[in-house]
């Protein structure tokens, strides 16, 4: 939260304001800042063929909500401040102002005109906020969820531009700005039309052909009983994995293990393809380590996944992801493992893969927050509380980071053989489910959060599906999941 409210002048293109500019103004005003708009009449609008192509794509993908890149009427908000505290330059000119000014940079360019061409060429842009044209004071690596569509990729990047700029303003207001080291970015220039014709259209065609032949997503869970050092200790999958098989009309993912009364229970996201949403199921293991039939133990009107099960103060709890409901709900076991009761709503919002940690005499939740627009996988937030049922308060440094490579948790915290506290994190560089890393928690309290850069988990060994996104272990039972190419049934293709 900010230490003070500011008088902010936001410089916007006068002839080519976009919807994301309006959203940013609304977010800054909602945070309590006095916002005035100053128009820059020099900036040119995006070329008509760019806007037309993006609009055509959105119709093709049936996106009815207003696009962040859509052009809107010129913005007018209040009168120019006599003595502003801060400027925010969205014009692309990065001109020198009389007051401290933040400007947005996209892969080194002070102009988001470059964004459609970068996304069309298959680039994953880096966003930066630069203070007075000199110091980089904020940086983001946005996730692009749907890389086959340029319009959707542009949406994801602009969404995180809003998040990054709001965070930079709040950090400035709290006097916490710290310059970042410069990083090298690819300075190759791309033109939209050639990039779209040579890169984006073939990519879109390949994806359309893949979806005709294969299901959009199908995951499988792997398990092994292993007494020695595991994946967290070695940094590689290794051997001994077995597949928890499914019938093909559903998949299992997001495995979590829980031991109770000498028995082993595996909790999974259970996704019947025909239903279009998942339930939570349990797979009991026999005494000899054989998985039994899965059975549904929790179903809601919305999608459920990531069933983190744990014991706390004499009860057994589950904290599944339910971002589609707009809230994070805690469940208590009434008759383990089959009956669960909603106990409390911990956090409001599109919170994904919330992962619990008891540390330093407090409870912490690590999760990603969609922040209204864009991807669900690139913006890490943390909440803290004294009691499990709350109240839960956002960490003052939220968002902790915006990074497709390390923001989204991929399993429960675990200590390795040398005592490091590690969190599995999803790496979205290759897309959702592209891989896992292990990031060490170096410092955590109400004022500080520090992680090490993630070390990628090597997928060598006998697990056949290297695109993994969850890792957990309880005792000798270690579990992972991986995405699998499954052909569509012929009747499904004919129906579509």
Present the secondary structure layout.
Elements: E1 7-13, H1 19-30, E2 34-40, H2 48-60, E3 86-89, E4 101-106, H3 115-120, E5 127-131, E6 135-140, H4 150-173, H5 192-213, E7 219-225, H6 231-234, E8 236-238, E9 242-244, E10 250-260, E11 263-272, E12 279-285, E13 295-298, E14 305-312, E15 315-321, E16 327-335, E17 339-348, E18 351-359, E19 362-369, E20 379-385, E21 393-394, E22 401-402, E23 414-415, E24 421-426, E25 436-444, E26 449-451, E27 455-456, E28 458-461, E29 468-474, E30 477-483, H7 490-495
Parallel strand pairs: 1-2, 1-3, 3-4, 8-28
Antiparallel strand pairs: 4-5, 5-6, 7-9, 7-30, 10-11, 11-12, 12-13, 14-15, 15-16, 16-17, 18-19, 19-20, 20-21, 20-22, 23-24, 24-25, 25-26, 25-27, 29-30
Helix pairs in contact: 1-4
- How are strands sequenced across the largest beta sheet? 2-1-3-4-5-6
CATH H-level homologous superfamily name of the largest domain? Glycosyl hydrolase domain, family 43
Distance between the termini: 48 Å
Looking at the structure, what is the overall shape? globular
Q: Characterize the biggest β-sheet.
A: 6 strands, mixed
List low-confidence stretches: none
**What portion of residues belong to β-strands?**
35-45%
Classify the helix fraction into a percent range.
Answer: 10-25%
- Supply the helix-strand structural class: alpha+beta
The name of the CATH topology of the largest domain is Tachylectin-2, Chain A
Name given to the CATH architecture of the largest domain: 5 Propeller
CATH class of the largest domain: Mainly Beta
Number of helices, counting only DSSP H or I runs of 4 residues or more: 7
| Gyration radius, in Å | 24 Å
Whole-number tally of structural domains: 2
Keywords: Carbohydrate metabolism, Plasmid, Polysaccharide degradation, Xylan degradation
Protein name: Glucosamine inositolphosphorylceramide transferase 1 N-terminal domain-containing protein
Domain Glucosamine inositolphosphorylceramide transferase 1 N-terminal: 249-438
